[in-house]
Amino acid sequence: MSDAVWIQITNSSGMFGMILSMTSNCTLLALIMCKASPVKGPYKNILIFFCIFTMFYSSVEMFLRPIIHIYDDTLFVMQRKWFEMSPFVSHFTTTMYCGCYAMSFVLFALQFLYRYVTTCKPLYISLFQGLRFLFWIFGAFCIALSWEAAAFFLFPQSDRTQKMFLYVLKNSYDLDPHFVDYVPYRYVSLF
Fold first, then answer.
1. Based on CB atoms within 10 Å of each CB, which residue in 8, 17, 94, 149 is the most buried?
2. How far apart are CA 122 and CA 10, in angstroms?
3. pLDDT tens track for 52-103
């Protein structure tokens, strides 16, 4: 299947995915918030935050319509813009996707850590209660922001990546370069 056909498939299914995500997460939030819900304590807070973040991530995904493409020694994280943006805003929103991607893994890890603590070390459940829960969320935000900052500052666009980017857009996707921005993760060999 060609890359251009894949773009058409993602265009068609993107809105459906966002609607499905919003509907299922709102339903889950309503069930969690219900007084009869069996979910209690810190796990309830983790699930609520996870649902809210998932809806935000779905919105970011729909807004950016990302494409991840590997060419030569570079992984391109590209966004297909809906409208013209300044280069700074465009690059910042593309790196925001990288931060959201990192945050999703951190939240999965947090959920599994909590499950481990409740099952194997129940004495430490207090580490997830009250204000301490906010420290876990703050830590997750810090990791996501560090990933976004790394993408923004450590992987700049260069003449070489710009040529590769234009080549990929022309030969693979047939997209207008004015409405696509990218973050180039270049692999650099130390040997």
1. 94
2. 44
3. 999 999 999 999 999 999 998 899 999 999 999 999 999 999 999 999 999 9
Q: Model-level pTM?
A: 0.87
> Which stretch of DSSP H or E encloses residue 178?
none
User: pLDDT band for position 5 (50/70/90)?
Assistant: confident
Structure confidence by residue, pLDDT tens digits, 136-168:
999 999 999 999 999 999 999 999 999 999 999
Residues in the chain, how many?
191
User: In the numeric block, which tokens belong to residue 3?
Assistant: 């890359």
Distance CA 38, CA 1 (A): 46
User: What six digits make up the tokens of 9?
Assistant: 């498939």
Name the token pair of 5.
Answer: 């056909």
Q: Please tell me the distance from the alpha carbon of residue 48 to that of residue 43, in angstroms, as a whole number.
A: 9
Give per-residue burial for 137-152: e unless 16+ CB within 10 Å, then b.
beebeebbeebbebbb
Which of 191, 185, 189 lies closest to 148 in space, CA to CA? 185
Tokens of 94: 């593309």
